Amino acid sequence: MKWNQIKINQQLGFFIIRLSAILIICTLLFILYDIFSKGSGSISWEFLTDKPRMGMTKGGIWPAIVGTFWVSLVTIIFAVPIGMFTATYLNEYAKQGRMIRIIRLAIRNLSGVPSIVYGLFGFALFTLMLNLGLSVISSGLTLGLLTLPWTITASEEALKTVPMSYREGALALGATKWQTIRSNVLPYAVPGMLTGTILGLARAAGETAPILFTGVAFFWPILPKFPTLLGQQFMALPYHLFIMSTQHHEIVKVRPLAYGTALVLIVLIISMNSLAIWIRYRFRKKYKRV
Amino acid sequence: MTPLQIRRLKESAIEKFFMSNGLIAVIILLGIFSLLFIEGYPALKEIGFSKIFLSSKWNPTSPVQESYGILAMIVSTLMVTLGALAIAVPIGIACAAYIADVASPRMREIVKPVIEILAGIPSVVVGFLGIIVVGPALAKLFNTSNGLNAINGSILLAVMSLPTIISISEDAIVSVPQEFKNASLALGANRWQTLIKVTVPSAMSGIIASVMLGMGRAIGETMTVLMACGNAPAIPQSFLDPVRTMTATIAIELGETVQGGLHYRSLFVIAFVLFIMTFLVNLVSDTVLQKYQKVHSQ
Predict the structure, then answer these.
(1) Do A13 and B7 touch (CB under 8 A)?
(2) Do B122 and A208 touch (CB under 8 A)?
(3) Backbone angles phi, psi at A51, to 5 degrees
(4) Alpha-carbon span A194 to A205, nearest angstrom
(5) How far apart are the first and last CA of chain A?
(6) Among positive and negative, which fits the CA dihedral A102, B8, A83, A138?
(7) Are B246 and B77 in contact (CB under 8 A)?
(8) Are B184 and B192 in contact (CB under 8 A)?
């Protein structure tokens, strides 16, 4: 009898924890289903390529797509080199000691700083102190700061997967440290770094709080040519969704447009994630052959 | 200079270059800390500590008597966060235990990407669903006029902190040495008893660290709570009251302030408090995690 009880407990326990996993799967499926089913009706060529019209009750989201693109580009240009160099220092050069401990502590804490605090910091530093104003540059740099801890961590992971023997081989042939890193370490780590970068960028592209005070605009349909646009305000997908769902004067009327924006944003982010996972997969396969 | 000397010089210059990049992270962290402090300190001095931290009256734009008490926001932030943890912690730990110890390889292949995708959903999309789906459902359930309140925020933040809690807890549970489990199984315990009496307790420090990190995310989350919590600046009496968190206050009000004014600076005080809170939470989780890694590497 007692033995039976124990067996039933086990069944029940496994059932409950399995249920929690299923609950999480269902949550995701529900989110995706809701947005796809209600958003796909608004997707059309016009929606993707037109600017908002008639007080944002008609038209499309093209300026928001372009704005998100340019801001992300500034983010990459800022965060990726610094992230890669920092990771190279931590994994290849630094010796265990107080210095490396402090740097690691800083990185871990940076990754926990709330995004709104980055927004405030970016506003005070880039927009006001460095006089970059409300612009694509200010927002891109703010998002760059936010992404930095992720690119560093991902790049370091990638460097760790390069086998020690690659380095030893080069060093044994008389190569200097830098020659070794350049020819025998970095080429093998780059795909992994790329994966981490894209994942970081996907998160940055969905962030709203850091761009709130640094340049994103409610309505900014004019798209100037390349260098001038960096100094101007812009529209962005996540902020556009925020506006359409809370700040618009005809909230119920524009709901389909809000769903459409959410769908585009989600598809963008999931495809970036899939691209990253695909690169990682290819990279692993290549490694197995080496 | 001989070629060898030149080469050495070049090598050390390259090393210095990489090191200077490493220092950027430290500089940014110190920069954030000092900028928030410099911008916020004058407000702290002028308004006074007790009028900021012990008062719940926040009305910086009042034409009669401005007040800058942030107690209500701190309480709101903590309330929404604790609510989120109450939902996310049991589900998260259970799910982590399932992935690490019970799930079949095929099931694992399904659940892990699901969690990765869930982690990637932008906060503004979660907030949007909070307004459109969770809000009306709560309004119907509790018979209130709208569902934009603390419990709505808690549910959404639970969804957002689950991926963090699950992935780190799972790492901790997976890395419990097999010998521990074998010993328990050899003594006649079944898999369930082993899981809850040996494996999960052994991974406890990692699990605690994961919960702290999830908590850090929930405290700092902005758009979701801004959209779904109703934004009423008063101390909430229950989970059905609308609340306005620290993050939401900054997001709503910074645009309307005069740079360098008292209102502007008081928002930096809030940001500073927020920074310190998340810093401490991260520090605790870090310390726990380090200690636990040390124990396990022995």
Answers:
(1) no
(2) yes
(3) -90, 165
(4) 16
(5) 58
(6) positive
(7) yes
(8) no
Exposure of A106 by Cβ count < 10 A (0-12 exposed, 13-18 middle, 19+ buried)?
buried
ipTM for the assembly: 0.91
CA distance B224 to B287: 29
Query: Torsion over CA of A116, B218, B214 and B92, rounded to 10 degrees?
Result: -140
Among the partner residues A17, A152, A265, nearest to B122 by beta-carbon distance: A265
Helix axes B150-174, B71-97, angle to 10 degrees: 40
Do A120 and B255 lie within an 8 Å CB cutoff?
no
Distance (Å, rounded) from C-alpha A52 to C-alpha B240? Answer: 36
CA B166 to chain centre: 14
Taking phi over 0 as left and psi of -120 to 50 as alpha, with beta for the rest, A55 belongs to left
Amino acid letter at B287? T
What span, in angstroms and rounded, lies between the C-alpha atoms of A255 and A42? Answer: 10
- Flag whether residue A5 sits within 8 Å of chain B, measured between CB atoms: no
**DSSP 8-state assignment for residue B217:** H
The per-residue DSSP string of A25-76 comes to HHHHHHHHHHHHHHHGGG--HHHHHS-EETTTTEE--HHHHHHHHHHHHHHH
What is the distance between the alpha carbons of residues A209 and B252, in angstroms, rounded to a whole number?
11
A290 pLDDT tier (thresholds 50, 70, 90): very low
Question: How far apart are the CA of B226 and the nearest CA of chain A, in angstroms?
Answer: 10
Contact (Cβ atoms closer than 8 angstroms) between residue B102 and residue A17: yes
Count of all residues that appear for chain A in the document: 290
d(CA A129, CA A121): 10
Contacts of A88 in chain B (CB under 8 A): 18
10 Å CB burial of residue B62 (0-12, 13-18, 19+) is exposed
Contact at CB, B28 and A148, closer than 8 angstroms: yes
- ∠ CA B250-A197-A67, nearest 5°, is 55
Cβ of A209 within 8 Å of Cβ of B7? The answer is no
Report the alpha-carbon angle A158-B92-A259, nearest 5.
Answer: 80
Identify the residue among B8, B17, B20, B125 best suited for mutation to test binding to A, counting A beta carbons within 10 A and taking the highest: B125
- The answer to whether the beta carbons of residues A28 and B162 sit under 8 Å apart is no
* pTM confidence score: 0.91
| DSSP three-state, residue B58 | strand
Task: Give the E-state strand segments of chain A in sequence order.
Answer: 52-53, 58-59
Residue with tokens 């994942």, as numbered in its chain: A199
At A115 the three-state DSSP class reads helix
- Residue A173 is predicted with a pLDDT of 93
B209-266 confidence digits (pLDDT tens): 999 999 999 999 999 999 999 888 888 888 888 999 999 999 999 888 888 889 999 9
Bridge partner residues of B67 (DSSP): B59
Label residues B230-240 b or e (16+ Cβ within 10 Å = b): bbbbbbbeebb
